[in-house]
Each structure stands twice: as C-alpha cells, then as structure tokens.
Amino acid sequence: MSKKVAVILSGCGVYDGAEIHESVITLLRLDQRGAVVQCFAPNVPQLHVVDHYSGDEMDETRNVLVESARIARGKIKDVKELHVAEFDALILPGGFGVAKNLSDFATSGANCTVQPDVLAACKAFVDAGKPVGLMCIAPALAAKIFGAGVVCTIGSDHDTAAALTQMGAEHHECEVSDIVEDEQRKLVTTPAYMLAQSIAEAASGINKMVDRVLELTHH
After folding, report:
1. What is the domain count for the chain?
2. Which tens digit of pLDDT belongs to each residue from 91-107?
3. Tens digit of pLDDT for each residue in 33-62?
4. Using 50, 70 and 90 to split pLDDT, how confident is the model at 72?
5. Where is the signal peptide (predicted)?
6. CATH number for the domain harbouring residue 44
C-alpha cells in the first residue's frame, strides 16, 4: 500500500520562499520510494520578494500558494485543506520562506509565531502520532509544533541553534549527510543547505530523512 505524504512549501526560491533543490530532492525521493505526494502551502502574501539574481529586495508582492505552485507544477492545495486523516506523514523543505512566510522566525527569532494554518496542520500530525520530517531552517519551528524538549538539528550554526534552544528545543549538531531523530515524537531532521556545499551533499541527508520518515509510518 502506497504511503501518502503531505509536503508543505513556503514559496519558490531560497531567499524568499521554499529552497527549490531541497523541495525537488524531497519530491523525487518520495516518488522513488513509491509514496503518493500532495503539496500544500498557505494562501497568504510573502513577507517580501527578493531578486535571486542580484539579491536585492523587489518592490512587488507575491502569494505563497501561487509561488509554491511553480515547484508543484500546479498540483497544490491551500494548507487549510490538509486533512491529517488522509496522510501518513508530513515533510517541510527549508528555504527562507519557512522563516519568513510559514513563520516570522526571520524577524522575531526565538519569539516567533507560526502561521496559524500551517501550525494547525503540523500539530494535527503530532496529535495523530504520525511522523514529521523537517530540513534546513524548518526545525526552527519544531518547538512551536512539538513543544519543549523536542530533539532536532539545523546542523552546526551556533546562533540559530541558540535560538532553537531558547525556544525550548534540544539541539543536536549534525553532519550534512546525517539525520537526527526524536524517537518519542517521530520527528526526523537534517541540515540540508544549512551545511550543504552542493546539491549532492544536500541530497545525501534529505534522502536519508525521507527514507526514515517513510519507515516510521509503519511503526
């Protein structure tokens, strides 16, 4: 029986949305493992828009759901339509969109809040005891989703790790090719582009994370 996995995206592009390589590697690995995938994103405006060529902020507005649809090839739903009963697991790729659109971690740090629709969707998986995978900066949301004491990694960035610790998470340093698992909470995290110097390096940990999340659907 194919496992059904929900993937929440945060826009399109590392600086203001979902990290495209991380998102595509995730979708590819899930497909290779025979999982059925549905992408979701919140139907909200982006915090801002960044020119990915120059790195400058642009004077325009974009919608997180509309931009995320680029990665999902149009097959995406509003995260309000994410019903946990229809899925076996949840995965969030990284990118600044997680810290700017799915939450305000980029501006508020340890005092951040998670976008309400996203938080409700994530908490539903926790309440149902279903596995969750977070990569790159997405574990910054872990303490808000799982509560204090949650074990996770963003790699080895001390400032970010300190913010996670301040929020109540237990941060474990981790190599790009490895994962950190909170067995009690069925949470699997990997650093991805918090550490990766190449797409192959990012894939080494993401593939391991996806594989473990799928394994945990049998537990």
Report:
1. 1
2. 999 999 999 999 999 99
3. 999 999 999 999 999 999 999 999 999 999
4. very high
5. none
6. 3.40.50.880
174 noted as active-site residue: no
Q: Encoding tokens for residue 26?
A: 């995730």
List the domain range (segments joined by +) for residue 158.
4-217
Largest CA-CA distance found in the chain, in angstroms, rounded: 48
The span from the CA of 146 to the CA of 135, in Å, is: 15
Q: Which DSSP string do the residues of 133-189 spell out, in sequence order?
A: EEETTGGGGHHHHH-TT-EE---S-HHHHHHHHHHT-EE----TT--EEETTTTEEE
Residues 88/120, Cβ–Cβ less than 8 Å: no
User: What pLDDT was estimated at residue 58?
Assistant: 97
Other Cβ atoms less than 10 A from the Cβ of 30: the count is 23
Q: Residues with Cβ < 8 Å from 78, sequence gap 6 or more?
A: 40, 41, 42, 43, 65, 117
